[in-house]
Fold:
Amino acid sequence: MATQVDVWSSAPQADGVVTLEHQPKASCPYSDDDDGLDEVEVNGNWTPQEKALHEARLKAKAKRRLRRSSSRNSTSDSVSESGETPGGDPHAVKGKVHNNDRKSRTGKGRGLPKKGGAGGKGVWGAPGMVYEAEEPDVRDPNYDEAAQGDTVYETVVPEVEEKELEKMVNPIVLEYFEHGDTKEVEVLLKELNLGQHKYEFTSVAVSLSLEGKASHRELTSRLLSDLSGKMLTQGDMAHAFDKMVKELPDLILDTPEAPQMLGQFIARGIADHVLPMNFLDTYKGKVDCEHARVALDRAAVLLSMKKGMIGLDNVWGVGGGLRPVKHLVKKMNLLLKEYLISGDVSEAEHCLRDLEVPHFHHELVYEAIVMVLESNGDTARHMMMKLLQSFWKTGLITVDQMNRGFQRVYDELHEICLDVPHAHPIMEAFVDLCYQESVITKQLRDACPFRGRKRFAQPAQDHEQLRLRLFPQKGRMGRQRKRVVTGDAPPHSRRDERPAALNRKEKKKKPDIGKLFINISIGLCIFSLIWFFYAIYMRSSLSKRVVTLHPSPRVLDANSTTAEVSSERFWGSYRPQVYFGMKTRSPRSVVTGMMWMRQFSNLDMNLRHTCEQGDHLQGYSWLMHDGLTFGVQEIRDNDFTLTTEFVKRIGGDHGGDWTWRITAKQHSSAPQPPVISLIFYAAADIQGSLHTHMEERHRLASITGFSEELGNFKITFRKPVTGELSSTKYASYNYLQTLSPGLEKLTDIVKLSLNRRFVYSPPSGEKRHYIGVDTYKPPHHQNQQKPADPRKESDFVVHQVTVQTPFQIEVLFESGSFYNRPNQLVGSIMTQELERRKAEFNVKFDKIFGLESKGFSQTYIKFAKAALSNMLGGMGYFYGESVVQSVYNEYPILYPEGALFTAVPSRSFFPRGFLWDEGFHQLLLSKWDPQLTREAIGHWFDLMNIEGWIPREQILGDEARSKVPAEFIVQRNENANPPTLFLALQELIGQLSSRSDEAASKPTLSFLRRLFPRLKTWFQWYNTTQTGPKPNSYRWRGRDKDTNLYLNPKTLTSGLDDYPRASHPSADERHVDLHCWMALSSGIMASIAQLLGEPHEDYKLLHDVLRDNNLLNDLHWSEQLHAFSDYGNHTQNVSLQREKVYVPPGQPRHQFPVARLVRSVRRAPKLQYVNALGYVSLFPFLLQILQPDSPKLEHILRDMRDPNKLWTPFGLRSLSKTDPLYMERNTEHDPPYWRGPVWININYLAVRALYHYGNTEGPYQEKAADVYKELRTNIINNVYTQYVETGYIWEQYNDSTGRGQGSHPFTGWSSLTVLMMAEHY
Structure:
């Protein structure tokens, strides 16, 4: 490749290769007309390199002179003897070419124009022009024959300088934003020699996208993904993102949202394997910049969203017109449906702007009108008019888009009428309404089609006059129907006359076809009307069934959680979503809690309140918690530790008193004692009132209040001290008293009230400004029509204490009805009470679990106590409405309000109830407190509807809903979850059989008797709605239907999410795990019915059928895999490939979708066994359906123990290493979830089953006992090790390294490790 240069030099390399090195110089380029060199340079003192350069110039000049006089030029290359150029203008001056002639002026060459028309004196063509390699001339005086064999000619592209890189790359990126073709970018970059600065391309692309739209950022993410491994390595990407993280203070000057956006880029990059998986780990403890922390926190939160959460492929939203039209239509439909529920115009406007498709807004108009036509009542009509009016006034929807949307409906109205018979009058009313509100023009209104008449027709009388005037003959003809016979007419012939009797007989024989047709039509119309109204009635009735609660008496009385009935459980740490807080078990409880932040840190604000993985705490865990009277929690922040303790004292009529004690200590690694602000608060929830009492000017001494559940009460804030008996420590105080619209807004209110104007002035230290709560100023949204929050505002009081570590603070709650209180529960009294409760906890723990007798050390026992305490401390009380939908509901509707007392899987990520998790939770809690288990199960069954369906994910109340993305809130009544509550009921039945004391058994028997009617309905719902294609087979409903995007469509309802099932979902599937769940459930139903004296024969018969090993083998045993398997329409020949998008010539690229990774099916599926070896294959063994002498047990034990299949040193992996889908992503941005990692709940079932078969006589008893010992030891050791190293119990564990991964802390079913330690199965 020829390049416009000043000086080129040859540098010999190995193997005789010669490369050209560019030597830039400021002098002018030499030309053929140069006669000499600068004498100053020749006579100067030159270095050896300069001397060699001078000699090369002299040789080149001599060579050019020799060529001028050479006689080797061919006829076509030379000048004629007359001095004329061949083919030149005969009228031109002799020996001179035309000024505009582009041929060589020296007369050399083939008489062709210069390459590309470029050049001039001393110039070798256009910059970047490529010349063919010139063969050496043997007649050249400088020709060296011996050196020719060792000469290699290379094309060398000079490396782009760093200061030029951005100038050259910017146009490439901006052009890519227009066409979206990553391959074109790759080709252009290959033509540039970016060299060691190639990582800068990533920085430039991301920086440009930060200043652009969401679609640009989506395109940039795709570009980086496609270039990764080709043009750029993970190291280059990491280098670029590291640079951007450090430059965030500069980036926010142009893009204030840069930290959040960069965090999303990092999360997307890690998910796409563009960045190393440990990229975030390299920053732990090393980041001082606030903006960098925000970016890294954002990335960590997004990466941790796995269970039931949206994928990272949608992290930038819809992405404008680069997405498929179907996707945009779906998004607009969802936008309109959410608007009809919320009525929030500003939110709808925000969502529409985020779509970035102004050319497609006519689709929103079209969909809005269609929804109005299909809706019942005037509500939707007025709401849609209001929405379109808002979009029209703000200019979001243009005249053209509005007209196109309405015109599309006009054109299709005759088709819409087939589905909506009354579409015409509804359309008329809506068009009139829109015209009255100035949404549409008069011309558009008049264009609306109307059934059988023109719009604004004249009155009937005027219309008739007009018709007579235009058609006078028609007006008279209507009265001239009879034929008049005159006397001149000839008489009728007598022979033509017939007897009257004969005529009457003929009339009787002749049926009147017209009347018959009319009668039939009337009958059909009457029947159709009856059927129509019956269908409407049935649809209305069926649509209400999903929100109709079960008619049987409630399992728990409505007042079962009140202070009068259950005073010991009335107050508790029932707010698992916050680090520390308490509330009562009542629907509208007064809530209390604590926030904190470190003062004088590099971050402007690091407020901690709700449990967030993005806070990057070193750990937070309940060390001891009995679920009733006390709890001790340790929270380890970056350079200090907070210990939160509470103790309850029962008394009075409203649950008694309680006291908090917060102790703060600095870490030994902290350079100086940190100054911390503790923020205590109390908030009413709709009902109740709070009043503040001040002392010493700004210090809030106490709060008094009243509510229906608590009566009168007082909360006292004591001053901080160094120790229990020490004097008061210096502190600064702030307080805030305001109103809150909802509990989910508390954090935002505190953040918006913070101010840096306060001074912290200790007696022996410097004065410094600190952040404190001040006056709350609600955010003002300009140019936004945000509707007022309809909820009633409630009292909210905040008390802030700013003090240097170490210190200790106590907060005391006293009930006004506790008259005979012996003393205040503070100071040494609290210490004594706390120590007594701790001792009782230790005694009870040892009695139940007996870990010391099992040989465990005190560190292992402390870990087990923490695991149990975290599950007890994670119990939550929620109240509110679920959002549900059935096939008979056009839109989601609200479920009846209800309460739920339940454990939660994770305080940070899943602080709500999950149906299939709860069964595992209660296996552990039933050992500790059977009454707690009975209440939790009762609350779940009291949420059942008339069909027997229980919503599988309970998102109750605004505070719980604020933690869940909108697309996951709606629960659908055809979807099930594994009925794990039967495991907990099995445990309760087992406890009955082991107790001879009738009094101890009475509560459980009474509970089962009240539960049984609902339990029967629940079992029947599973047995009818989840049946399979064959008798006694079962199939999970609710599999993902979009098979184009998923490598293997997920089955979220099974609880195993992305575990491989049949590649093509169909009604022919049979799921072995559901078959085993039904076999287990039917057996437990038979036991409960027999225990209560109810008919049990049908349950026993079904149990015997389902646990028949021959039936199980026929339905699910795969001879090819030698394992139990699902059955369905399946092929293993599937993969994810980049789709091809055809763009017709001349069409704009941005109007076509971006190429995505989609599923490619290389071989057609067929009905066969799904040969995926993993957790599902083990279910006949896990739930102990197999007989101890079954030959299939040998295969299962062998596969479990095989390291190449399921065995790991950390537990059983979820999918065999030999499976094609092992650790494979399910979509472009959906990492493997149940395709390899170790999950503790299934491993618990495996250990439990091994214990059963190892203690049951059979040919495989010894083998099962050996595997049991090994597996139990591996699981316990790994979970304990990770807890010690990381401070957390984890959702899942890596099958290769054993490291914890997923959400944390996950003290749900992972706490079953305690039962394995105690060998309680």
